[in-house]
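Re: [ENG-882] Designed sequences occasionally contain unexpected residues at chain ends

Forwarding the minimal case from QA. Structure tokens:
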């Protein structure tokens, strides 16, 4: 399909998004096939090599912090040198070549180290990739929603492969190392993306070029980041949901199927919620997602016995979790693009990821500590209380003033 933009340039579209956005979606697809073959079994692999709830929280928190703190630096640096592709290529290469070596982990400490290298690659690429998507996007919500859908479709395929191999009695280590194959496809594809800088983009769009200059991020942008950070602190990492699922179903190989179902819902609804947020406003969509996560956490706090009823309940919860992610993750990124100018989107995404990295580290550690020292009931009650506070803050905030130019 071919459309013309405001300057009458022909733009090739695939599934309603530009070709570069679609290719970046394919890169994320193959990367997530690789990643989710690992992630769908990683919490149990960590427990197998001596980890506990707090160790799981430590690995999640520290590696997420590494990723997001580096996103802050790489976003600033990409704006500084006015290049994005080098960060994207290096980031995807480091991640896809390192994470399969978790297969040889003798202890949880080794997993932490390799996972940190993997997250280093993610941190290096994400701000620059999101900046490229925002440049190539015809509609921000639709572009980010479609990209997240393709990313998550990779997670669906990866988790299904993990289920299949577990069912065939493969070991965790064998499954993890096999993930190197789809990673190679992602590395090859990312080289086909053309870099873009704001000056070239303005020239193509028919607007006068301007001399590069440094723009300051507004106080409203900082306020938006703080509010989105509150959402991150009240989030629930899916690794803890996977561990909790063990209390609802006693077949370990079934856990990747639950994980896959969650990602299917995410893949289906990400473009829908993205388009919806373009039309009715991002705040309403995010609030619905937060409310769904709150209901899920309240259910997870209740002790259950393994039965057909518990199986049905955990399936519903994983479906709800997928919708929560689709309602919050891509919409938060689109919020950043709404407020940041073209010349500072790299830094804008960088500051956003830096803030949620620091926040998520504390959130995962506290949740893991409560999980270990008290019980899963108190851990999920803790998250539920945070979510109630978060929903109140998000509801009473007037985003029209924050987003007003």
């Amino acid at each position: 399909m071919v459309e013309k933009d405001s300057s009458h340039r022909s733009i090739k579209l695939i599934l309603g998004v530009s070709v570069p956005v679609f290719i970046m979606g394919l890169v994320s697809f193959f990367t997530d096939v690789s990643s989710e073959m690992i992630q769908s079994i990683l919490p149990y692999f960590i427990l197998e090599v001596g980890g506990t709830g707090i160790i799981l929280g430590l690995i999640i928190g520290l590696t997420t912090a590494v990723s997001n703190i580096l996103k802050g630096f790489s976003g600033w640096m990409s704006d500084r040198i006015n290049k994005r592709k080098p960060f994207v290529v290096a980031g995807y290469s480091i991640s896809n070549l390192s994470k399969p070596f978790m297969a040889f982990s003798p202890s949880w400490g080794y997993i932490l180290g390799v996972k940190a290298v993997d997250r280093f690659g993610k941190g290096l690429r994400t701000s620059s990739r999101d900046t490229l998507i925002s440049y190539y996007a015809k509609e921000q919500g639709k572009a980010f929603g479609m990209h997240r859908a393709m990313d998550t479709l990779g997670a669906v395929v990866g988790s299904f492969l993990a289920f299949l191999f577990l069912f065939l009695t493969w070991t965790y280590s064998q499954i993890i190392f096999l993930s190197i194959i789809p990673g190679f496809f992602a590395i090859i594809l990312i080289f086909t993306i053309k870099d873009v800088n704001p000056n070239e983009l303005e020239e193509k769009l028919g607007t006068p070029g301007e001399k590069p200059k440094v723009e300051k991020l507004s106080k409203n942008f900082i306020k938006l980041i703080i509010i989105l950070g509150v959402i991150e602190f009240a989030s629930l990492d899916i690794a803890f949901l996977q561990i909790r699922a063990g209390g609802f179903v006693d077949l370990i190989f079934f856990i990747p199927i639950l994980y896959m179902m969650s990602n299917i819902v995410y893949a289906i609804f990400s473009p829908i919620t993205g388009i919806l947020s373009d039309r009715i406003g991002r705040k309403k969509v995010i609030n619905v997602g937060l409310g769904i996560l709150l209901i899920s956490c309240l259910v997870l706090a209740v002790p259950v016995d393994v039965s057909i009823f518990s199986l049905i309940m955990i399936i519903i919860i994983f479906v709800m979790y997928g919708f929560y992610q689709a309602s919050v993750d891509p919409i938060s990124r689109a919020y950043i693009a709404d407020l940041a100018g073209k010349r500072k989107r790299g830094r804008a995404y960088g500051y956003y990821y830096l803030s949620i990295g620091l926040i998520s580290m504390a959130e995962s550690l506290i949740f893991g500590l409560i999980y270990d020292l008290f019980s899963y009931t108190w851990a999920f009650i803790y998250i539920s209380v945070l979510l109630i506070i978060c929903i109140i803050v998000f509801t009473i905030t007037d985003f029209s003033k924050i987003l007003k130019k």
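QA comment: On inspection the terminal residues look reasonable. The CA atoms of residues 130 and 276 lie 20 Å apart. Proposing we downgrade this to a documentation issue.
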